[in-house]
Write a structure and sequence with these properties.
Elements: H1 7-21, E1 25-34, E2 37-51, E3 54-63, H2 70-83, E4 88-93, H3 98-106, E5 109-112, H4 114-119, H5 124-128, H6 132-140, H7 151-160, H8 168-187, H9 192-214, H10 222-235, H11 239-257, H12 261-277, H13 281-288, H14 291-309, H15 321-333, H16 338-344
Parallel strand pairs: 3-4, 4-5
Antiparallel strand pairs: 1-2, 2-3
């Protein structure tokens, strides 16, 4: 299922393969959306884990053209990095002028010039992985995907969340989308491989997001770490106090203008609070708070992404113990029967 890509995209795939081999988690073509407007795509989004308390997000701007305008791209990429809160910027350009590298160094931008790009070659990793175009093409082969929950749209939107920053809000969205694809695995046997690929990919994003959140919790004890994770997975980035503040502002209008306003407001607040507190987030909070899980989550994310993008598809039954444990924990969180889920993928 070879899908030809244009020259610029081919270079992006080469660089993606290079950075994966270097140990990064890599996402290609990350949409950057601002206030509903599609601004641009981040050519490559890189994530690395240096230690229990250190993470790094790098964006790569790739220009494989005869007139790459490298100096201008340095300005552009620096601004984009600030907008998406990236730590570092890399420019990959066919330009070989020394002045370009010097200018990049002055602005703390690493320039991979034409000399470097000319030495890139197709690696074994690239030959065994689907390109992003091939991955999306597989999803498009499901003719009902658009009306059946918009499979492609859900994957692309999940990827675009990387540009918003790694927060509890984005992690909760990835939890939601991953659950959607877990349910498709159970109910769409004819689309099993594609559903599994999408499931693995969105789960890899979730694993990266949680790994990033854990950097700030690496020096607190297990009880406090579990509490903070449970609160974040339950109430989002603003926490319980933020939710109560938002509810207070909204319900104050009900109290003022609705008949029997105070009584209605109390009932609404109580019902909403009960709904949130009934969420079984303690399950995943306790799982992610474990030291051995925190230490391996980055590698689990990379493994899940590999399972999603491998040309020769394999189900996660052959994956590491850590990956299978993560999936099992999330199935419990979603109240999806583990045996039923395992039985549904035996036919792959």
């Amino acid at each position: 299922m070879s899908k030809k890509v244009c020259k610029g995209f081919a270079m992006e795939e080469l660089l993606k393969s290079y950075f994966i081999q270097a140990g990064y988690y890599v996402a290609r073509g990350v949409p950057f959306v601002y206030e509903g407007f599609d601004v641009t795509d981040i050519d490559l989004w890189l994530y690395s884990r240096a230690s229990s308390a250190t993470r790094n997000v790098t964006i790569v701007d790739v220009k494989n053209k005869k007139t790459p305008q490298a100096i201008e791209r340095i300005f552009w990429a620096k601004g984009l990095a600030q907008a998406v809160k990236a730590d570092n910027v890399i420019i990959a350009t066919t330009d070989q002028r020394k002045e370009v590298k010097d200018f990049g160094k002055d602005l703390n931008v690493l320039v991979l010039d034409g000399v470097f790009l000319s030495k890139l070659s197709r690696t074994e990793s690239e030959l065994t992985r689907l390109s992003d175009e091939e991955f999306i093409s597989l999803i498009d082969m499901y003719n009902l995907g658009k009306i059946d929950g918009d499979w492609k749209g859900q994957v692309l939107k999940s990827k675009s969340l990387l540009a918003r920053g790694l927060t509890f809000d984005t992690c909760n969205k990835w939890l939601e989308v991953s659950r959607f694809f877990a349910e498709q695995i159970l109910t769409k046997p004819s689309q099993l491989e594609v559903a599994l690929r999408c499931f693995y990919y969105t789960l890899s994003l979730l694993a990266i997001g949680v790994d990033y959140l854990l950097r700030e919790l690496s020096f607190v004890d297990n009880v406090e770490r579990t509490e903070k994770l449970a609160e974040g997975f339950t109430y989002g980035s603003k926490g319980k106090s933020g939710l109560n503040k938002m509810l207070g502002l909204s319900l104050s209008l009900v109290e003022q203008f609705a008949e029997e306003g105070p009584s209605i407001a109390r009932q609404v607040k109580s019902k909403i609070s009960d709904e949130f507190e009934s969420l079984p987030t303690q399950i995943i909070a306790e799982y992610f708070s474990k030291g051995e899980v925190a230490r391996t989550l980055f590698n689990t994310a990379k493994e899940l992404e590999l399972y999603a993008m491998s040309k020769e598809f394999r189900p996660h039954t052959e994956s590491s113990l850590e990956t299978r444990a993560l999936i099992g924990c999330l199935l419990d969180f979603w109240s999806i029967d583990r045996k039923a889920f395992s039985s549904s993928i035996v036919v792959v």
